[in-house]
Amino acid sequence: xxxxxxxxxxxxxxxxxxxxxxxxxxxxxxxxxxxxxxxxxxxxxxxxxxxxxxxxxxxxxxxxxxxxxxxxxxxxxxxxxxxxxxxxxxxxxxxxxxxxxxxxxxxxxxxxxxxxxxxxxxxxxxxxxxxxxxxxxxxxxxxxxxxxxxxxxxxxxxxxxxxxxxxxxxxxxxxxxxxxxxxxxxxxxxxxxxxxxxxxxxxxxxxxxxx
Length: 211
Known about the structure:
The chain is an alpha+beta fold. The protein has a domain at 38-174: Sandwich (Immunoglobulin-like). The model is unreliable at 20-33 and 179-187 (pLDDT under 50). Strands 2, 4, 5, 7, 8 and 9 form a six-stranded mixed sheet that branches. The chain has a three-stranded antiparallel sheet with strand order 1-3-6, with no helix packed on it. Helices cover 27% and strands 27% of the residues. Keywords: Cell membrane, Membrane, Nitrate assimilation, Signal, Transmembrane, Transmembrane helix. Residues 1-34 form the signal peptide. It comes from Sorghum bicolor (Sorghum). Belongs to the NAR2 family. The chain crosses the membrane at residues 185-204.
């Protein structure tokens, strides 16, 4: 009788432990879903930019026109799943060096190189996937070297193909320093006024001493 009771107690204990383990497993965070990897995407889009290699564009002032289309080498129907095209401004390798916050990652969900949205448009299949957009460089884009990348996305918004201008033929952006031209003028006027005022008081003091 006692042996049977001990067996029941052991089974109850094991059941409790198993239930606790299952509960703990259920509370663990689910593993993060892997993002789309650039290396797995076909480079199916031809992308060009109006800015020449080394050309300097001023943030908030100058613009660049980006043009994209499906490469003629792509087989018929290759773009059947394309729904949108989104274009981004990306740091070129020269502006990523020693800057981890601008680093390129193959996993697009972790990529920090292409931080600036240029445009997103419906994919024009009837026009051979062609499109263009003139982008005025945003005021918050910092100084650096850049290139442009376009992604074709499917109905769920997932990247399924891409194309880009050559990172080696990047153009430059001169960012806004944060000191407005009018402030510089005001500072210059104030400095000049200070010099004049100092000279005036110097003359007054000398006259008082000579009386």
